[in-house]
User: Fold this.
Amino acid sequence: VTRQVSGQEQAGSNGHGPVLLDIDGDGIPDRVTPSADRPGTDLEIPASKEIAEVHDETPSVYVDPSDLPRSMDRYRDSLQRARLEPVVPEALRTLRGWWDLACLMSTFYGHVLLFYLVRLPLIAAVVTFVRIPKGFARALSTVSHWVRDEETAVLQRLQAYDEKNAETHIKLTKQRHRRSRWRWILLLSGAVALLVVWATLSTTKPPWWYPQIAALVLVLGLAKLGTGPGAPVLGRAVTTFDSPKLTVEIIDTALANLGISSLTQAFAKDGHGVGYPAPITREKQGYRADIDLPHGVTAEQVVERRIKLASGLRRPVGSVWPMVDPDPDMHAGRLILWVTDRPFSKLPQPLWPLAKRGQQDMFKPLPLGYDQRGALVTLLLMFTNVLIGAIPGMGKTMALRVILLAASFDPHCEIHAHELKGTGDLRAIEPLAHRYSSGPGDAATIDKTMASIREVHSYLGPRAETLKRLPRHMVPENKVTPELASRRDLGLHPVLLAIDEVQEVFESEHRAEAEALMKAIIKRGRALGIMVALSTQKPERDAIPTSITSNMGMRLCLRVMDWQANDMILGTGAYKGGINATQLTNSDLGIGFLRDGGIVTLVRSSYIDAVTADRIGARALGIREAEGTLTGDAVGTGHTARVTISIVDDVRAVFAGGETGLWSTLILERLAALRPEIYAGWTQGQLTAALKAKGISAGRQVERADPLTGRRKNQRGVFLEDLPEAITAGPESAITVDDEEGVS
Amino acid sequence: MRGLIALVLLLLGLYAITCAVMPWGQCHKCHGDKRIPTRSGRGRARKCPRCRGTGIRLRLGRRVFNYFSDVKGQAEAK
Assistant:
């Protein structure tokens, strides 16, 4: 840029164009502040002589002096912001990583080897009877073409057969004869030379493998010749899911055809419409490209046209994820393009971390799902609240269920779960929830929900009192701490109030009360360890009061239909800022944007089906039972009966009257009949181990009649006398927790 | 009669193949010699005027074929 700034202009312009500033007040301008369209670029110019002159006499100065000294701060900043590529790839940083790689490689190549070994006879047959003859024929025809100079013959044929071409024809004929004669000589002398070599070799005594090698080369050569391009003998041994590489050309083509006129123009000019500040990188499950769009084009414009972009990239829409750079310091034209190998909703998803083992602490982030990179996405619910929104059927309740299941693994967390759709999607939580209800927004369910809201609201006062009473050093931030939360006597344990389809509450007659209570809970409960998770398909003002939504710190927005809904859930300006959940399509099940303050993550919440959810819930229930933290409805409904499930009692129960000993096999059969949900599929080993843990031997020989044949024989089994009398199972304390204790 | 027709058709087919594969034949006038003797037999033989000294000519069948393919080409060229 060689625009010049005159002295008058700088005096008159205010915020428009470059201005010379005099900061130290010595009458000499010492800084050129950036123009309005280039925020953040501080061009520092020392109080040089030229500029001093500018101020006095000289009418103008170059805005972009070429000899501008580079500011040390900028240099430092650019160093600091540079992305440091790992020296050793992350996958190979640990011994385990190497081991994993070795395992994968051996599986892969072992499979390939086995695949072809099994098919070796078929391959041999095809090669011998098809490929080699074909290769021989091809070799022959190539040689004969060459010798007979078919090239010229083709030229002759291309000539229009016309009387006036007679001379050309004759010329070409002569050329053909000349060439052909020489080539015949070459061919024959070559053949003679080969024969001579053969004769000499056969008289000497070669190492035994010479002829074999020659034959092998010949056979392989002919087989290779006989194999046309793209005609493998067999199908592939392995199908890799590597999608076509993402290249600059593909991206350029896609961007140029997006229908953004300035973008198209930029490409039309010189073919280099966009810049690539970093190389395209291969990630775990796809590619990442950082793109600098042309001047004046924003990343949001591209994000809006995701479907067109996908078409341009020739990928399914579900694989293409254009995003605005989450770094707020980055310019608006920086686009980050993720292209996953398969549609994000179909990528193999790692197991939800709590599915099989582990516990959760509400003061630590809850696992929600995985992002497009395959990295775990968590959400720290403590001291905040979450609002989930989407059109029906996109996985709203599923996401809420994941959060609830995660919370249920903190045995101290008191869960209030209300699902006002009536489909029982949160059933897995029921056995362990302090309060639970499910119904299609009917009066009874709403009443239960309201009761729950009132109950949680009633915690606020006492909890605040408790915190106030505690010595200062125990509550350094006037917030519940993990130590305080784990002390049952204080009643400061985490409380999670989750309401699915919350608009049902606010559209009922209880709206005013619900609004007042929820507002208080959301505002004051935050520091008191009370969390709220709401989900709705109707994020409108009349469905949920703004006073409530605006105070919720965390948002999860799955597919919505318009920018209004998008902004209601993700916050005003989200759509304009490129956080655009309307771009999600029907196939993007469970995929949404998680906004935690300024940080937005694309996340696919872990898919946990109802059966798995029940199993996971049962595990969480077990933990709560063991800890004795079941409260509220969970105690009253008789679910705690499971506490008393004891292998010893069950084994005793399967002894029929008069039986003193039972074979293990029979015990297993009867146990499976008694409680199929637990004992079905148990092996003898499991039974022995379970009994051994109680100090009972299942290895004694029991003599009794076979129920099938009636013959008496000896088998391993258990004697009734070995079973201790009336075991009262360990943590019965679960039941002793009083329902009202949490309130007081 | 039918046999005769079949024979004629066969010969025509063979001729067509000949015209397609080797469209050039010997000049009828000079028999491929490219030049012809003077009438008296004395003096230098002169260049065959028929084949303009090439010694070859396009077969009649090929010429007919060329004529029709030219007409066709002109028709398609608009």
In short: Residues 459 and 598 of chain A are 31 Å apart (CA to CA). The longest helix of chain A spans residues 166-203. The mean pLDDT of chain A is 80.
